[in-house]
Amino acid sequence: MEVAGSSDAEREEDDPAMELLRDRFRLSTISIAEAEAQRNEMEISQPIMACISDLAFKYTEQLAKDLELFAQHAGRKSANVEDVILSAHRNEHLAASLRSFYNDLKAKDPQSERKRKKALGKRDRPTRDVLHISDS
Predict the structure, then answer these.
(1) End-to-end CA distance of the chain, in Å?
(2) How many CA atoms lie within 13 Å of 106's alpha carbon, on the beta-carbon side?
(3) What would the pLDDT profile of 54-99 be if each residue is shown by its tens digit?
(4) pLDDT (tens digit, 9 = 90+) per residue, 1-23?
(5) Nearest-angstrom CA–CA distance, 41 and 129
(6) How far is residue 99 from each of residues 52, 102, 107, measured CA to CA in Å?
(7) DSSP assignment of 14-41, as one string?
(8) Following CA atoms 112, 117, 120, 121 in sequence, which dihedral angle do they give, to the nearest 10 degrees?
């Protein structure tokens, strides 16, 4: 039963899977922050690490929503590399880094693209490359 006035964010907070994902993300973010602080001989307080973690999670949620919208706008069901690069349009340095990374990936394995296109039927052929990220 849906409660009147409840937002998507409130419903997501009640979702156990979302809570687990948020907890794992927080642990990973804190681990990275601690490692970087140690590497740079700095100290970061726990409240600051928690704040960084929460901001990074919210940014990632918004990024996922943007990617979904970009794919829908293009009439696709899944986001592709072009969508990821487009999502970085406000940060030219990041967009340039993403383009460079993608071009390096294509240069390393040009054969796999031809094989995949050949194996797919015309109807199932993707319009752009898709970058899959595993859960592990």
Answers:
(1) 34
(2) 12
(3) 999 999 999 999 999 999 999 999 999 999 999 888 889 999 999 9
(4) 444 444 555 555 578 998 999 99
(5) 41
(6) 26, 5, 12
(7) H-HHHHHHHHHHHHHHHHHHHHHHHHTT
(8) -170
CA distances in angstroms from 9 to 17, 18, 84, listed in the order given: 14, 10, 23
Report CA dihedral (71, 58, 133, 77) to the nearest 10 degrees. Answer: -20
Residue 43: partners with Cβ closer than 8 Å, 6 or more residues away: 37
56 touches 50 (CB < 8 A): no
Query: For 85, how many CA atoms within 13 A lie in the half-sphere containing its CB?
Result: 16
Q: Which long-range contacts (CB under 8 A, 24 or more apart) does 57-63 make?
A: 57/22, 57/25, 57/26, 57/29, 60/25, 63/87
